[in-house]
Specification:
Layout: H1 3-9, H2 19-31, H3 36-41, H4 49-56, H5 63-70, H6 74-83, H7 98-114, H8 116-144, H9 152-163, H10 166-188, E1 192-194, E2 197-209, H11 212-218, H12 221-241, E3 245-250, E4 253-258, H13 261-276, E5 284-296, E6 299-301, H14 303-314, E7 320-323, H15 324-330, E8 334-336, E9 340-341, E10 348-349, E11 351-354
Amino acid sequence: MNAAALEALGVYDPASPQASETLELLSYALELGATTDDLLEFRDQLAGLPSVLAMRDGPALTLRDAAERSGVAEDKLLRIATAAGLPTPGEDDRVFSEGFSDLGAGIESAELLFGEEAVLQLIRVMGSGMARIADAIMSAFFVNVEPDSSERLEVARANAQAGALIPGLAFALDVLLRQHLQLARRSSLGAATEGGYEKRRMCVGFVDLVGSTRLALGATASALGEVLAEFERASSEVVSARGGRVVKLIGDEVLFTAANERSASEIALALRERLAAHPSIPPVRAGLAGGDVLLRDGDVFGPVVNLAARVVGAAGAGQVLVPAAFAAAAGISARPLRPRELKGFEGAVELCELVPTGSGR
């Protein structure tokens, strides 16, 4: 399209002070495959349009278009979209990709194996995970890639370069999913089920930063971000290296699982020591418990999880606390403490503080 056609479309004003730059942006978007509908929709966001084109990878579809293409009823496709965490579109909103319609068409084979409700729940989990990954990618782009420039064409080119990485990202997600499925398969052999949940004997641990509230009040946003980033990095590396799994990170706290008491104890102690060596991170405390744990959608539930949460609440800075039976099973030196009343548990609970050899405690 030439300048006259773009002017007639209503996306280009030759009298504008930014006319030259806008024409370059429009021409660049057209080179990348933008349609006239795209130019109209993103007329005020032309610098970001290249990333939209890369992410969509084809024409945008309405719900009706996607349903016709996939052969799946509109209401069912909408249930899939809602389960994935996508907003409900208007009748004429073009928000779906051809890939999404293909996804809808492929759902039926999964439903034959798992059932419709189970598949929708899996989609909820995947959608939640993808939303988190998408947010992380956008944050990484804004912090590390997007030029600190008023030149919109420069920003548009950076968006296009980032968009070109999407196929590699999709490949990475596929590879990592397969790796983690292998680990999950090995770790779930012999697992039982109870009330729609998987039940497995395992150990659960909470590790959190002591005094993080004071830190948040007294530190700059940048300094606080660095502390939390290092806490997350250290937690992921220490837990994974010792065969555990990070279930979730909640700001200043990590919840992890391990196969047995020894592994869980070594993870908590190693994480405590690693973070103690960091000059800016406050001391940590940990609480561990073991027994039958309920698992669903990548999360853990049940009395064992509640006990570990209560135990960490009873710990002081630098302490790794466990029930007495846990300490005996771990085979690690431990110092008995006076029994504690823990909310939600009848009677006093006998606790011990893990004291690894050579700690001097």
